[in-house]
Amino acid sequence: MEDQINELSNGAPAVEVEAGPSPPTPPNHSKPAAQATMRRLPPPSETSANSVGKRSGRRYGRASETYAAAAAEARAAGLDPKIVLAHPKTQSISVPISIIIDCSFESYMVDKELVSLSSQIQRAYSENRAAEYRPHLFVSSWGGKIKNRYEVGMNATHQYWKGIRFIEGDILDASKEATELEDPNSEPETVTTDTIVYLSSDSPYILERLEPGTSYVIGGIVDKNREKGLCHRLARKRGIRTAKLPIKEYMVMNSRQVLATNHVVEIMLRWLECGDWGAAFLKALPKRKEAKLRDEGSGAGSVEPEEERDAEDEEGDEEDAEGDEEAMADAPTTSKEDVDDEATG
């Protein structure tokens, strides 16, 4: 027996054993992966275009509510929503330049024109608030009917405006405050006209650039061109330098060159941004002026008669008035005699 065991261990051929039948495979009751995945997905109706549209509608509704709230906030602050919401919110940089709107011409205007001027001041303020480079803004000779309109007709919202000062004194008083703002460390000095430039289209001098430490005065008057040369005569009488915007040097216009107060302010703001009068005019001038750069405007169309151009501009200026005319108390500031008694020479 032992010999047989040794023989097997010493390399005897192995005996092949026939394998028996394989046990049966148990049935697979699990679902196919794809089928299981499909059943875990939400029903098709939940991912339809209707649900996507509902989400888009909710987003649009929230955006509309946000816009409406911002517009209401702007109106409550006395701002023009179209201007405020059109400009992206950027950090404004204060510059040592002042713009003074001279409101000493009340006796030259009827109530409807005073309403238009009040709207122009509001738009000028809105433009300055939204500007990248922000000068100091003043309104001088503040009083009379226009002040009453702001306090009564406009619910005194101007009291909450920022970056603007309403001065009861004249342009010299406003210029003195402007100097103190631009250089707080400066010693108080007597008021001089050296740092004041009155902007007038009747001036023989052209404004080439805006200089730091200078106050630029804009005549706050809407008179449909009845009182030609009024601002220029007032400035000469008081010994104040004058200058006019270089419109003719850069632009061709099928219209007169007299601009609304807010348009002059916007032109100056655009120049502070780009340093180019041509680009500033194109951005700020109203479309009804049909303004083109001088090198682009040669031979461009016919020029209308002066009377027709003035009539169209008067219609455009009336768009600046908001609301109905109101009964406002009489309180004239500058009389015609004060201005018309111009010193000769």
UniProtKB/TrEMBL annotation:
A GO CC term attached to the entry: nucleus
GO molecular function, one term: tRNA binding
Catalytic activity: guanosine(9) in tRNA + S-adenosyl-L-methionine = N(1)-methylguanosine(9) in tRNA + S-adenosyl-L-homocysteine + H(+)
Organism domain of life: Eukaryota
Keyword Transferase: yes
Keywords: Methyltransferase, S-adenosyl-L-methionine, Transferase
GO biological process: tRNA N1-guanine methylation
EC number: 2.1.1.221
Region (Disordered) residue spans: 1-60, 290-345
Gene3D superfamilies for the chain: 3.40.1280.30
Name listed for the protein in its UniProt record: tRNA (guanine(9)-N1)-methyltransferase
Organism from which the protein derives: Parascedosporium putredinis
